[in-house]
């Protein structure tokens, strides 16, 4: 059984009400429940964490190593484009991670085209709304299946 962690960055607590044309109508709690259920059905545990504070996200990433988290799914939201500190934390713990975005950041403002995480991520999934998280989880579950004897 692998331990998985989903990290949600700033303003994602407003999903379902914030800019639904970009982010959809599904609430963060609903996404989290679905991901937890999918992981549990495959024999793994999954915890979700959301914060609007950069330091709290960094502390959660650092704690993940001590907890022996096998994979991280992270939607760093706006911190994707600004936070070298978040990138440094992910590199420091050396836990493989998938970067997720609800919207297709490449169809949006030019400042969103730059990610400080993408080049150190296992992969990047963007533009499928809440299903972006499901795609990331399915990819990780597939890697876990291939790795088990």
Note down, in words, how this protein is organized.
The protein is α/β, with parallel strands linked by helices. It has one domain (3-147): Dehydroquinase, class II (Rossmann fold, 3-Layer(aba) Sandwich). The protein contains 5 helices and 5 strands, in the order E-H-H-E-H-E-H-E-E-H. Strands 2-1-3-4-5 form a 5-stranded parallel beta sheet, with helices on both faces. Helix 4 links the parallel strand 3 (71-75) and strand 4 (97-101). Helix 3 runs parallel beside helix 4 (84-93). The two termini are 13 Å apart. The mean pLDDT is 93.
- Give the total of domains: 1
What strand line-up does the widest sheet have? 2-1-3-4-5
Sheet with the most strands, sense and barrel status: 5 strands, parallel
Strand content: 15-25%
Mean pLDDT: 93
Number of strands: 5
CATH class division: Alpha Beta
Q: Specify the number of helices.
A: 5
N-to-C terminal Cα separation, in Å? 13 Å
Low-confidence stretches: none
Shape: globular
What's the CATH superfamily, by name? Answer: Dehydroquinase, class II
CATH architecture: 3-Layer(aba) Sandwich
